[in-house]
Amino acid sequence: MTLPPEVLAIFGPTAAGKSALAHAAAVALGGEIIVADPFQRYRGLEITADAPAAHHRAEVPYHLVGDLDLTHDSTAGTFAAAAHRVIDAVVARGGVPIVSGGTGLYLRAALTHMEMRSAPPPEVREWARALAAHPSAGAAELRARDPKVAEAIDMANPRRVSRALERSAMGQSVDAGGDIWKAPARRPALVVGITRPREVIDVLIAARVDREIGDGLVAELQRALETPGLARAPQQVIGMREVKAMRVGTLGRDGLPDALCMRTRRLARMQETWLRRMAPDALLDLADAPAVDALPQLLTAWRRAREGVG
Q: What is the three-class DSSP state of 176?
């Protein structure tokens, strides 16, 4: 017998409108939002990470947003523990936890009992970091060690390459996707995927990049880079690498929008792959309409699942 869902989860490619839809659902259901995004956790990256605006946070409770200083690292393991506590507390007080994000890994971490890998020894971590700092060397080593994983990850992201090399060195490397798909659910959940045509996503990404630059993205990242003891994790946010390049003169300001759009489009494609692997319970194609237009469909899917209607 399938139990009625206690948790609503919304996932889709970046800029598709999942945050807007999650907010509208929270208003309609009296829900609380758990943001499954490692970068929205950081105070000082509000523009860059597209964190919820103050007026949205005044309307709906948001959790795991702005709860970390830039000197701290966010990991899937620490996020999972915090997200589980929040979800359990929301359910206990009769609310609807709405998990929305960000990254597929963090969404799965919030929804499941996902087994976390042990941390590598310092010498392995340093070896992997040093290799990943040289893209061609890091890519060659990973392809030699684990070609399937090398094909599946973003090889232009030094952090992902470094993590994959660490796992490979420790014998933890798994076939592109790994055990996270086998992790058992903690609570019954309705997972809703949202999609749009790629050409629409690309237009929305460009609009968001323009907005964030206009809102002060470069100045925000300049301040973050000057933070004493800046941790490794926040430095992986899209935009940090580009602003570093601007500081040393290898990227001009005129080239910033295209550079940000290119990396964000790559992220969106990866999230589309994650969405297919998740096999969501419901899939909403937003086409080119505002995301909130899909709220009636979302609420119908939630009501039917709660009532056990197939």
A: coil
